[in-house]
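Researcher: We plan to redesign the surface later, but first we want a full-length starting point. Tokens attached.
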């Protein structure tokens, strides 16, 4: 999921931004031409996770995709922006069916010093931008690490990757 990416931002839909890899995926796969979303990031995420038109995952009776897949024997992992609860142990991805998680629990923030960064059910210290940390790169690297770990097993896996880019604040 690309946060705040508009339909017309991609080259395959006539956008002005050069997106060759995404265009290649569109040309070799399925392109949606008629679709709707909730217009804001967190309701779209809640709807995607639950399959219901909602803006939160607060109801204990609301089941998420990773909960169903975990219970069916899948390995489940998520990397990136959650924005559906900031308490990692009770409302974060780890509490809603993901067995592995690395990312930000809140909404928008710095790509160099992201707030509310967590691993599994534990908040992490804010990264040091002087050490070369860049959130977009870390999301991709962690997603690859999860896939490597999942592939050591014969069990199937489900992974959800939610990049914050191109969400504001825009960083050149």
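Model: Full-length starting sequence:
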């Amino acid at each position: 999921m690309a946060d705040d990416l508009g339909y017309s931002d991609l080259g395959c839909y006539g956008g002005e931004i050069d997106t060759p890899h995404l265009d290649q995926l569109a040309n070799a796969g399925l392109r949606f031409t008629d679709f709707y979303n909730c217009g804001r990031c967190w309701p779209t995420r809640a709807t995607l996770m639950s399959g219901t038109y909602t803006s939160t995952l607060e109801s204990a009776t609301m089941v998420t995709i990773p909960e169903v897949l975990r219970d069916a024997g899948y390995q489940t992992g998520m990397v990136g922006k959650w924005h559906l609860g900031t308490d990692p142990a009770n409302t974060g991805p780890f509490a809603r069916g993901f067995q592995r998680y690395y990312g930000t629990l809140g909404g928008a923030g710095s790509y160099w010093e992201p707030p509310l960064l967590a691993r599994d059910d534990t908040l992490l210290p804010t990264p040091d931008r002087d050490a070369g940390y860049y959130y977009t790169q870390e999301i991709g690297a962690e997603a690859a690490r999860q896939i490597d770990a999942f592939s050591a097993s014969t069990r199937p896996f489900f992974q959800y990757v939610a990049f914050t880019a191109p969400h504001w604040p825009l960083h050149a």
